Amino acid sequence: MEKKWAELERKFNISSAQQHILFLLATNKNVLTPSKISELGCWHTSTVTRLLQPLQKRGFINVTTNKEQSRYKIVTITVEGKEILDKLMDAVRDMEQFPLDTRHLSKEEVTKFLDYGQSILDVHKGNDFMEFLINARVKDYDYDSSFNIGRAR
């Protein structure tokens, strides 16, 4: 799987961590604070700051000051960021067995797999975080059909 991520990094010149940030933004109404990105991505805030800089330079995100609280920043994905994310997602969809091939599993087996994952998240991150992840969606994508997996409840 790491080899496949590396292929995407080379092809699109964007690190897997930066891809993750674009995905987090897209699944959160295109707007997050750096501290929320830090929490969701399990990174230190200094790491998030370092990851945001090249994304901003390439025009994939905007980082602005919160109008109500000038100490806080707001990160938004741009049209260019959405376009690169679409290209990345298309490339992932076209890769066989990425991140793993679930075509041989029944819907019930995939549901059990997702339930186990949700159980692990619940123990380690709590209910609020688990619900947040379960309800996250990238606009205009139907993961059931494009990734051959069942939709999380």
Structure explained in plain terms:
It is a single chain. The chain is mostly helical and 153 residues long. It folds into two domains: 1-100, Winged helix-like DNA-binding domain superfamily/Winged helix DNA-binding domain (Arc Repressor Mutant, subunit A, Orthogonal Bundle), CATH 1.10.10; 103-153, no CATH class. 59% of the residues lie in helices and 8% in strands. It has eight helices and three strands; from the N terminus they run ααβααββαααα. The protein has helices spanning 2-12, 16-26, 34-41, 45-57, 79-94, 107-125, 127-135, 143-146; strands at 31-32, 61-65, 73-77. Strands 1-3-2 form a three-stranded antiparallel beta sheet. Helix 2 (16-26) packs across helix 5, helix 3 (34-41) crosses helix 4 and helix 6 (107-125) crosses helix 7 (127-135). The chain is globular. Residues 139-153 have low confidence and may be disordered.
